[in-house]
Backbone:
């Protein structure tokens, strides 16, 4: 999702000047196990920091709370106060360990810089992207070997129905945790075999609230 300030004329003019420069993130890292070079987040930041500063633009990246996953926010702020913002969720981060989250965050930071500023990179494969993909594949294999879960779309639909009822939402996730004998923090972890019962509970709750 991209949003911007009400007026962006000065920021756009500055970005046009930035775009005239060749922004390239060079390989400054090495994966010895897989034998390839990659551009680190520091390389990406160095590739843009100078030209942005020369045009009175500041780049910031922060995490904000999401539901259920945190959201990476990338902001270009001009000295005039005009700004443009890009946001992207770290899908599945709420169910991962700190090391996997760190790799995913670094990868998405680089991806967001590329998207918002058009930075080119020498390499098509990077270390953090590989780690994030390997983590995803491992998680998918584990999920398939155990119990299949509902789709992300189905999970979001369930969550949206209870978005304004956080107390019941928390209680329901606790009930699912007991039923599946594992900690469940979002509907993305709901097994297909339990989806029908949970859907009925949600609909009954909505009926009570309506009436």
Residues:
């Amino acid at each position: 999702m991209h949003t911007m300030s009400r007026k962006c004329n000065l920021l756009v003019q500055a970005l046009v000047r930035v775009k005239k420069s060749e922004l390239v993130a060079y390989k400054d890292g090495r994966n010895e196990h897989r034998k390839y070079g990659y551009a680190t987040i520091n390389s990406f930041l160095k590739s843009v920091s100078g030209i942005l500063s020369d045009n009175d633009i500041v780049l910031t990246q922060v995490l904000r709370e999401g539901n259920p996953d945190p959201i990476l926010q990338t902001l270009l702020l001009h000295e005039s106060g005009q700004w443009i913002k890009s946001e992207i969720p770290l899908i599945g981060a709420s169910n991962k360990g700190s090391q996997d989250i760190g790799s995913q965050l670094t990868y998405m930071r680089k991806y967001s810089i590329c998207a918002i500023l058009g930075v080119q990179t020498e390499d098509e494969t990077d270390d953090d992207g590989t780690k994030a993909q390997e983590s995803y594949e491992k998680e998918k294999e584990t999920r398939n070997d155990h119990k299949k879960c509902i789709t992300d779309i189905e999970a979001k639909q369930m969550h949206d129905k209870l978005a304004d009822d956080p107390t019941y939402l928390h209680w329901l996730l606790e009930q699912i945790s007991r039923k599946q004998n594992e900690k469940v923090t979002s509907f993305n972890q709901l097994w297909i075999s339990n989806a029908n019962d949970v859907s009925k509970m949600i609909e009954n709750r909505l009926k009570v609230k309506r009436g």
Summary: The CA atoms of residues 5 and 81 lie 8 Å apart.
